[in-house]
Design goal:
The complex is a heterodimer of chains A (about 625) and B (about 375). By secondary structure, chain A is mostly helical. Among the domains of chain A are: about 35-185, no CATH class; about 200-245 and about 255-315, no CATH class; about 450-625, no CATH class. Chain A is built from 27 helices and six strands. In chain A, the strands form three sheets. In chain A, strands 1-2 form a two-stranded antiparallel sheet. The longest helix of chain A has about 35 residues, at about 495-530. The two termini of chain A are about 30 Å apart. Chain B folds into three domains: about 10-120 and about 350-380, no CATH class; about 120-130 and about 275-345, no CATH class; about 140-275, no CATH class. In chain B, strands 3, 4, 5, 12, 13, 14, 15, 16, 17 and 18 form a ten-stranded antiparallel sheet that branches. Chain B has a four-stranded antiparallel sheet with strand order 6-7-10-11. The relative contact order of chain B is 0.13. The longest helix of chain B is centred in the C-terminal third of the chain and has 29 residues, at about 350-380. Chain B has helices spanning about 1-15, 15-40, 40-50, 70-85, 95-120, 160-165, 350-380; strands spanning about 55-60, 60-70, 120-125, 130-145, 155-160, 170, 180-185, 190, 210-215, 230-235, 240-245, 255-260, 260-290, 295-305, 315-320, 325, 330-335, 340-345. With about 375 residues, chain B is α+β, with helices and mostly antiparallel strands. Chain B is about 30% helix and about 40% strand. Chains A and B meet through helix 24 and helix 25 of A and helix 2, helix 3, strand 14, strand 17 and helix 7 of B.
């Protein structure tokens, strides 16, 4: 390695990360991408169809990529097009995750019928070692469809049970039922059930509309009328009513000159206006036309309609469309995914610097951390701009922000101490928090709207940001302590100087954590006093934050009292990880209180595993100094 | 000997070891209390863990103190903190941050103690156009005996629920009869007797009572459930008993009777807290995000009418923007169809945490800056 190595390493990483912006996804035409950029109003906010496709896929099948029965892969946008306009095809894609064995039994599956049989010996070995899946996790809608009545019956039994009290089977049933209805609502976003020929139905309706409406009026007035025409109008009306009730995706923009700028509605609602206004809503016609072209594989026609509709929307809603375009770009760039890989590389370089090539490897690690941090900053800033909110609004964004804050502190530490420890800690925390964020994204749209009680940018910007910084710094102190223990016990690299500077780092970060967790908790109390009339209410999340404050204060007092020295300080700091993770996730799992954002069963397992690992590390740290490889004479 | 013991005690009281022990105990207490909330609800947990000297756990039939409660730990922390500062008193800038932070902490602890003792919570429910000059307690009830003879105003005698539960007989100069509380249930379910044929006999002889079957229930502490107390009350005139009424907040219909030429009504209702002004709900608005059922905002426009006839003023109460007026604070808490539910809080010490927290924050910042500057100077001069 030479002195120019760090520059090359960082430059290559930066190029790889930025390529996401220019790279075109495989097999996706420009027309499909333009379709993904069309705005709709769903879950309370304006978003591109691309985001709708991605977040739906993450919820129902825990990944964005869709594999068709013939083994080929399609993008989220292509899947959405199939789901909306070619449901017979989309129904056969395996896009529903079912893991619970009792639930599998309910839909007529068991481990044996789902087993994946590998041909090559290497793959078989991989399966035995749990590296490759041994059974299908995903089912298609058509496989599940015959069992929907049974699932619905179980859902009705499970739904009244409080989320925290549900058995695994009950939660699985509720989740699957929710996913199925989410998919069905998507399928009915534009077309009715059995809507293969909906375009010609609409065109015919438009043609005969004046005569048909006349016939209905005559029928209502009890005068002679054309029974067939009147009947057709009434049937169409009934169809539109049922359409308007079977989706929650508001894809149709308000008409030009509509005084109520905000009234987006779904296709059925827009079609019901046909009879009053005397023509079929042009946006519905455009979407139905896209569907027709997509179904019949008329790529050129499809692209043409998307382009026409897109430009007319762009003229009428320039601000919204610009926002939605940026969101689509943000989706495609996947900045946090790139960050994750760079953090991992940074950790490897930092560890390398303790063994060989000290200075070049250390500088490479530092450069990579800085690069990933800048990328994360851009990502978080983009999210803030899209939402018009401070950085932390839900669990997902808290994970992003904890990582971002910790890494920022690490950059400062590395700048001050120059021993690669800051970069190593940054690599691990950055990677881990983004991993956590990725799993939290499986719960749905991560840019979701804020409930009324949280709707205060001032308090979100102060209390939440400061308390999350407190979490981040407590985790960082714990991480540094973990590095101390692992390097000390298992390697010979923890010399006196490194040990002392680690101890100083931990102490400094604990001071910082005390300040921020205290101020953040206090600001929360003031917010609570402003909105509920009590400074402190012993709500689980408040208690969790309070415990972090007390724990940090305890570490400081124990050190001042001389109760702990270096190793003791490290043990206490590692326990800080447990305290913080409990406050971050554990309090939500109780399913009570004002901050309970929902119970996550998988998170419970991971939390338990994490706590066990930290206790094990404390146990290792308590080994007598003679057993530490670095301290042996 | 005695002197030695005292100095030993003193060195324990002022020691940092005691501080660390108390901090550790408080963490356990808070953690345990948080877990127990799942079963007890937040209100009962506060009484059991924080507003107590000891945490009691039932072993068989006996309540055994097993852990120090919030008052004990908080009190000891205060003693430890104050005595340590008095004992080690040294004036100097190097400790200024620690001093400030700890003084703030003392204020915070005392402030929370005071607000725990004096803070009162009520609720006010208003329909659009409705005017009220009182708010209602969330948990406490009262027996109201109302003289309705004069259509212009009601003469009310309100008897707290505790009198009913203890069976205290009430004689008031405003009433021509004594109120003699009988059987009392802190929580019970009511059912029409026609729907519960096998129900046991009732002591009630007048009003709705004879037609209603009462089933006692366990007292609940859950956040979203309320207790419905039921009491049987006998009214005893100078010569003979008027009869026994069953009262409960769940009885929808008014129970009226006539006695001594006056028209009376008897009812159990949430305890009322009257204020020297009234509020009128002018308009309640409530929005959801389009296409969802997520509440976006809700707000109440209310008019404050002063009793002295001053000009009324209109204010908008919404989330995170309460109305503070005459020592009371009105918060937008919830809503029910088109009526708004305001949370009403009286807490004279509400300002204390603000000052205390500012002091602690400033103290911590000063102290850690001193550390940081020392660290930086040390590094710069090798």
């Amino acid at each position: 390695m030479t002195r120019s190595t760090p520059v090359i390493v960082v430059a290559v990483a930066a190029l790889c990360a930025l390529s996401g912006l220019y790279q075109k996804p495989r097999g996706e035409s420009e027309a499909v991408r333009a379709f993904g950029r069309l705005p709709v109003l769903a879950e309370g906010r304006m978003k591109p169809l691309d985001s709708l496709a991605r977040s739906t896929l993450l919820v129902i099948q825990a990944r964005q990529r869709v594999v068709r029965p013939d083994g080929t892969e399609i993008t989220p946008d292509q899947w959405l097009l199939d789901a909306m306009f070619y449901p017979e095809k989309a129904d056969t894609y395996r896009t529903f995750v079912v893991d619970n064995t009792d639930l599998l039994l309910l839909i007529g599956k068991n481990d044996e019928s789902l087993a994946i049989h590998y041909k090559s010996t290497a793959e078989q070995l991989g399966a035995i070692l749990d590296l490759l899946p041994t059974r299908q996790r995903r089912m298609s809608f058509s496989e599940i469809e015959p069992f929907i009545p049974a699932i619905e019956a179980q859902y009705k039994l499970a739904e009244p049970v409080e989320a925290a009290a549900r058995t695994q089977f009950q939660s699985a049933v509720v989740q699957l039922y929710g996913n199925l209805s989410r998919y069905i609502r998507l399928r009915h976003a534009i077309l009715p059930e059995k809507g293969e020929d909906f375009l010609s139905e609409l065109l015919q309706l438009e043609e005969t509309l004046p005569a048909a409406v006349e016939a209905v009026r005559a029928k209502e007035a009890g005068k002679p009328h054309d029974e067939a025409k009147a009947g057709a109008v009434i049937a169409a009306g009934q169809k539109f009513i049922s359409m308007s009730e079977s989706t929650d995706i508001l894809a149709i923009p308000p008409e030009e000159g509509d005084p109520q700028h905000g009234s987006w509605r779904n296709a059925g609602q827009a079609l019901l206006e046909t009879f009053g206004q005397g023509f079929v809503n042009p946006s519905v016609l455009a979407y139905t036309g896209m569907g027709y072209a997509w179904r019949h594989g008329e790529e050129e026609k499809f692209g043409h309609i998307v382009q026409m509709y897109g430009s007319s929307i762009g003229k009428r809603f320039p601000a919204e469309v610009r926002k939605v375009r940026i969101e689509t770009l943000f989706n495609a760039a996947e900045p946090f995914y790139a960050c994750m890989i760079i953090y991992l590389a940074a950790f490897l370089f930092a560890a390398l610097s303790w063994l060989r090539w000290q200075e070049p490897a250390r500088l490479s690690a530092w450069g990579l951390v800085a690069l990933a941090w800048v990328l994360a900053t851009v990502g978080i800033a983009t999210r803030m701009w899209l939402e018009g909110r401070p950085p932390v609004t839900n669990l997902y964004s808290s994970a992003l922000f904890i990582g971002w804050g910790s890494v920022a502190l690490c950059l400062v530490l590395e700048w001050a101490f120059k021993n690669a420890i800051g970069s190593a800690a940054a690599g691990v925390i950055g990677f881990a928090t983004l991993m956590i964020a990725h799993h939290l994204a499986l719960a749905g749209d991560t840019l979701e709207m804020m409930r009324a009680v949280l709707d205060s940018n001032f308090w979100l910007g102060t209390h939440v940001v400061v308390v999350t910084t407190g979490y981040a710094s407590t985790f960082l102190a714990g991480m540094l302590a973990v590095i101390y223990v692992l390097r000390g016990v298992f390697t010979r690299t923890l010399d006196k100087g490194t040990a002392d500077s680690l101890a100083r780092m931990v102490y400094g970060i604990v001071c910082f954590a005390t300040l921020f967790s205290f101020v953040g908790t206090t600001l929360g109390g003031i917010w609570a006093d402003q909105s509920w009339g009590r400074f402190w209410g012993w709500d689980p999340k408040e208690n969790g934050a309070l415990i972090i404050v007390i724990w940090n204060a305890l570490i400081l007092h124990a050190r001042w009292a001389g109760l702990v020295r270096q190793r003791g300080l490290m043990c206490l700091a590692i326990f800080g990880n447990i305290v913080t993770s409990w406050s971050w996730f554990g309090t939500n799992m109780l399913g009570i209180g004002l901050h309970s954002y929902g119970f996550t069963q998988a998170a419970f397992w991971w939390l338990t595993a994490f706590i066990a690992s930290q206790l094990a590390l404390i146990g290792i740290a308590c080994l007598p100094p003679g057993r530490w490889r670095s301290f042996r004479a | 000997m005695m002197k030695e013991l005292l100095s030993q005690l003193r060195s324990v009281v002022v020691s940092l070891r005691l501080t660390v022990l108390l901090l550790a105990l408080s963490i356990v207490l808070v953690f345990w209390a948080t877990l127990d909330q799942v079963h007890l609800g937040v209100w009962a947990v506060q009484q059991k863990f924080f507003h107590s000297l000891f945490v009691f756990v039932a072993v068989g039939q006996i309540q055994v103190p097993v852990f120090p409660g919030g008052y004990l730990i908080g009190g000891l922390l205060l003693v430890n903190l104050i005595s340590a500062h008095v004992y080690r008193f040294k004036l100097g800038w190097s400790k200024a941050g620690i001093w400030l932070a700890h003084i703030g902490l003392i204020m915070l602890l005392l402030g929370e103690l005071v607000s725990g003792l004096v803070q009162q919570d009520f609720q006010m429910r208003l329909d659009e156009g409705e005017t009220k000059n009182y708010s209602e307690s969330l948990r406490r009830f009262e027996l109201a005996v109302i003289d309705e003879t004069d259509p212009a105003f009601d003469e009310v005698v309100a008897i707290p629920e505790s009198y009913l539960s203890r069976g205290t007989v009430v004689q008031s100069p405003k009433l021509p009869f004594r109120v003699v509380p009988g059987t009392y249930y802190a929580n019970a379910a009511l059912q029409m007797r026609s729907q519960a044929p096998g129900a046991p006999a009732t002591p009630a002889t007048r009003g709705m009572g004879p037609q209603v079957a009462v089933t006692p229930l366990e007292v609940t502490y859950a956040e979203n459930e309320r207790n419905t107390p039921v009491s049987f009350v006998e009214l005893a005139g100078p010569d003979a008993s008027l009869g026994t009424w069953m009262v409960s907040p769940d009885i929808g219909m008014p129970q009226r009777f006539e006695y001594a030429g006056h028209k009376w009504r008897i009812a159990m209702r949430p305890e009322r807290h009257y204020q020297p002004f009234s509020l009128t709900l002018v308009k309640f608005t409530h929005d959801i995000y389009p296409g969802t059922d997520i509440p976006k905002n809700f707000s109440s426009k209310v008019r404050i009418n002063l009793a002295d006839g001053g000009s009324p003023q209109e204010v908008l109460i919404y989330m995170n923007n309460p109305l503070r007026f005459a020592g009371l604070t009105y918060y937008q808490a919830s809503y029910d169809n088109n009526s708004t539910i305001l949370q009403v809080v009286r807490n004279p010490s509400w300002l204390v945490p603000y000052i205390a927290c500012a002091a602690i924050t400033l103290g911590l910042v000063i102290q850690f800056m001193i550390h940081l500057v020392a660290f930086a100077t040390r590094r710069r001069s090798p």
